[in-house]
What we know:
This is Small RNA 2'-O-methyltransferase. Its EC number is 2.1.1.386. This protein is of the alpha/beta class. It has helices spanning 17-21, 60-66, 85-94, 96-100, 107-110, 127-134, 169-184, 194-202, 213-220, 225-240, 256-270, 285-291, 306-316, 323-326, 363-374, 409-423, 451-454, and strands at residues 2-9, 29-33, 36-45, 50-58, 113-124, 140-147, 155-168, 275-279, 298-303, 329-333, 348-352, 378-384, 425-432, 443-450. The protein folds into two domains: 2-189, 2-Layer Sandwich (c-terminal autoproteolytic domain of nucleoporin nup98), CATH 3.30.1610.20; 256-454, Vaccinia Virus protein VP39 (Rossmann fold, 3-Layer(aba) Sandwich). The protein has 17 helices and 14 strands.
Amino acid sequence: xxxxxxxxxxxxxxxxxxxLLVKHPGKVHQFDVxxxxxxxxxxxxxxxxxxxxxxxxxxxxxxxxxxxxxELGAYVNDRPYAAxxxxxxxxxxxxxxxxxxxxxxxxxxxxxxxxxxxxxxVLGGSTELATRLFAPLGxxxxxxxxxxxxxxxxxxxxxxxxxxxxxxxADALNHLYVLLPVLDDAKxxxxxxxxxxxxxxxxxxxLAGHPxxxxxxxxxxxxxxxxxxxxxxxLEVAEENPDEESELPVARKVSxxxxxxxxxxxxxxxxxAARVIDLGCGGGALLAALIKDRRFTEIVGTDVSxxxxxxxxxxxxxxxxxxxxxxxxKIWQSALTYRDDRLRGYDAxxxxxxxxxVDLPRLPALEASVFGHAHPRTVVVTTPNAEYNVHYEGLTxxxxxxxxxxxxxxxxxxxxxxxxxxxxxxxxFRPVGEEHETTGAPTQLAIFKEKxxxx
Length: 455
């Protein structure tokens, strides 16, 4: 299960490539990365021609631990076989100095454009898109579609990519770091706001003027609209003022994620909830907001993903919290489609951007577990409004690759009303985010209140 990238130069002495990469051509170099083991080795190393290979050996067990998806998505995917953001992440760790253009032994060579040939034998994407992305950067691009077996016929969604050009090695590596996940269009990790800085840093000097910068920003930032808009605004400033620091000229816009958390916190406060459980807590963004408010005396975060719980633990810095603070919060692994006695007896439960990740046939099991068995006094649910998706330029399908469905406002109201009636709740609906007169708000929120509590 190996993913491969090779870099070749013919600039004599070609073995100076080892100095630029800070990896000796006579050795095999091994690195531990989050999803497996990366190796750097040299299949050929002569004065006339030198090739360095980055080999990523993906560990399926570690890969599953990295997944936030449900059901078989964590087990059946192309990540161990095709270049993607996994390879880009390994490249960033293994060639950190080379990406910065730093070379203690050959500083003048690090600043020089040299003849390079780069090959990625298996990469998700199309020939046409690979050309659109790499050709404006001075590369001669060959992207051959990889065919299916003869008995099947036709071509797969993968290409064998070769790039040739005279380019500074640091620029070449930064092109790859940004554009490999853009071609694949499926990041393997949660995309946070700090990814904007990584994009701008790696795209310095070339991204602002790239004809596909909009597509690159959107795909690199996993189609998170507010992040892409922020990155593009800063790129626009950089293009207009190339000698000045890139800086947003306007006040920071509150992201939809922040608006969503604020709406959930407001609903919990109105419900006078002190003991709250965040079901499907993910990386712990809502938990971090809850723990700052002393009104919430007991806070629990649950998720089926052990990786997500590890992220939440790190975000909350549980190992550093004072004892009094630490006693307020618990982290549990739990699957929402199964009954869990630990979830009973809470004032409120939150399902924030969770239900759309559950297969529709499994949704009744979640309803029975949360609304029936756990049965908190208040349940707050948020989910995307499918009608609003027309405002996301370039979006095809759903907002996230792991979404099993996205409902219109009518569909969400129908489900929520039926669920409330079935399990003894009333339900109130609220929009979250900027509303459009015909399509509504980007997020829809429902507040379920136990009928006895409202009597």
